[in-house]
Write a structure and sequence with these properties.
481 residues, Aminopeptidase, Jelly Rolls, eight-stranded mixed sheet, six-stranded antiparallel sheet, 23% helix, elongated, zinc, M28_SGAP-like
């Protein structure tokens, strides 16, 4: 990864509109009809990428560096040999492979572009990683890791030879990234406006095996990031925005050209926070990669766990985005709601501070924590939300949460306080002080209409000027199967 910084911020807007309250809120409801594009075709299950094979490519990059002055810097013999190694593997697998000489690079050298010859030529998803390193060391995490992950994914795609490709898949290994993102910028500038329009997304993978690493996604809230996030969410990883890497790797020239981008990273020289160490493991206060741009960036400087999870996430994205089938494969579903019982802090929920609480004034359904909205006895609005990605191809998408309502209101006919539940901006149900009871009640909704989309689930409580109503939510699940 290039060693400069470019600050940016990502914001998530939460909130919901209040709608008319039904006399008796339904236990089961369906979301309103959508006006989006037709449902995507069914997809085959993504293959498991063998991390041992990825590590074998890293060993080859290490051997190449050792045989060529200890590094694989762009324009050097080590980089040329790395390009030859990757190219030979891809050509043998059946890819259309092109070397593009970067004439504007600091070190004149070649990008390597490989395209799988199936799928529509005007619908392209692209996956890239820089193959060069710095002259200080062999560059195995930075960026042999991203390069090896993409190489093995390309080889698996070729071995699988899917019968139907809904998009064309293109891979790239960039040169001269460490000197200023020059290889990828040269490639983007070489594309015509029409060719840029064919690119429906670019995914970048730079340093995905850091030994003290985190789990970071570029532009994490974007639609482009959805398949990458969906896979890591299925593992309960709780990924974060790649703040450190913004503007510092090869996705940046694509982003500047108006092409949607995302990607994985495990972190470079920035230091892991105590919160990150608590949820991901590792050492707080230490760099994600202690050998960043150093001679010790060898095969010993790579986390097999991070490498494996990144490789499998890339495969999931490729299959979700580009591989179709006449019949569905195994559903890549599971529990989609993170921290569903509120027992592990607030992440990935966002909203009003203090809503997630272990206060004994209102009991949790299970464990010690729950989300307690309202109960203030005065004019207030409180929210709680989480962004979810629903994979396509599953048969069932039940959203369930348990709700306990108690109130100090004495009327049996008039609504004063209410809780609205929304997903994707549409209201599933609205509850009020009229629905108060002494126990938790399971509320279940079929949200299959949102399959293949990234949507926000939002709870919004509003109270009037006097007399409290408490809406206590616990054990929120969305089990795609």
């Amino acid at each position: 990864m290039r060693g400069r910084t470019l600050g940016a911020a990502v914001a998530l807007v939460v909130g919901a509109a209040i709608t008319t309250i039904p006399a008796a809120p339904p236990t089961v409801a369906s979301p309103p009809a959508r006006t989006a594009a037709p449902a995507p075709p069914a997809v085959l299950a993504a293959p498991d990428i063998a991390v041992a094979n990825v590590q074998a490519h890293l060993t080859q990059f290490q051997t190449i560096a050792t045989s060529n002055g200890g590094h694989r810097r762009a324009g050097s013999a080590g980089h040329t040999a790395s390009v030859a190694y990757v190219k030979g593997k891809l050509q043998a697998a059946g890819y259309t492979v092109t070397e593009q000489t970067c004439t504007s690079c600091v070190y004149r050298s070649n990008n390597l572009i490989a395209e799988w010859p199936a799928g529509p030529t005007d619908q392209v998803v692209m996956f890239g990683a820089h193959l060069d390193g710095v002259s200080a060391g062999p560059g195995i995490n930075d960026n042999g890791s991203g390069s090896a992950v993409l190489l093995e994914n390309a080889l698996v795609l070729a071995a699988q030879r899917p019968a139907t490709m809904t998009k064309r898949v293109r891979f790239a290994w960039w040169t001269d990234e460490e000197q200023g993102l020059n290889g990828s910028e040269f490639y983007v500038n070489s594309l015509s406006a029409t060719q840029r329009g064919y690119l429906k997304g670019y995914y970048n993978f730079d340093m995905v095996g850091s030994t003290n690493g985190g789990y970071f996604i570029n532009r994490i809230t974007s639609t482009t990031a959805a398949p990458l996030k969906a896979y890591w969410d299925s593992l309960g990883i709780q990924p974060e925005e790649n703040v450190e890497g913004q503007g510092r790797s090869d996705d940046y020239p694509f982003q500047q050209a108006g092409i949607p981008t995302s990607g994985y990273a495990a972190g470079a020289s920035a230091r892991k926070s105590s919160t990150q160490a608590a949820k991901w493991g590792g050492t707080a206060g230490s760099s994600y990669d202690p050998c960043y741009h150093r001679a010790c960036d060898t095969t010993s400087n790579v986390s097999a766990t991070h490498l494996d999870r990144s490789a499998d996430g890339v495969a999931y994205a490729i299959w979700q985005l580009a591989v179709g089938s006449g019949t569905p494969g195994t559903c890549a579903g599971g529990q989609l709601v993170g921290n569903s019982s509120f027992e592990t802090g607030t992440t990935p929920w966002t909203g009003t501070t203090g809503v997630i609480t272990s206060s004994t004034s209102r009991p949790a359904r299970t464990g010690s924590y729950k989300a307690w909205l309202g109960g203030n006895g005065g004019t207030s609005t409180e929210t709680l939300s989480q962004t979810l990605t629903l994979p396509a191809g599953c048969a069932s998408y039940p959203l369930t949460f348990h709700l306990r309502i108690d109130t100090a209101e004495t009327t049996s006919t008039r609504v004063y306080d209410r809780l609205t539940v929304q997903i994707g901006g549409a209201t599933l149900a609205t509850y009020s002080n009229l629905n108060a009871g002494s126990s938790y009640v399971a509320r279940t909704f079929d949200v299959a209409g949102y399959a293949g989309q990234t949507v926000t689930l939002t709870f919004t409580a509003t109270e009037d000027a006097s007399l409290q109503t408490s809406f206590v939510v616990d054990d929120v699940t969305l089990q795609a199967s």
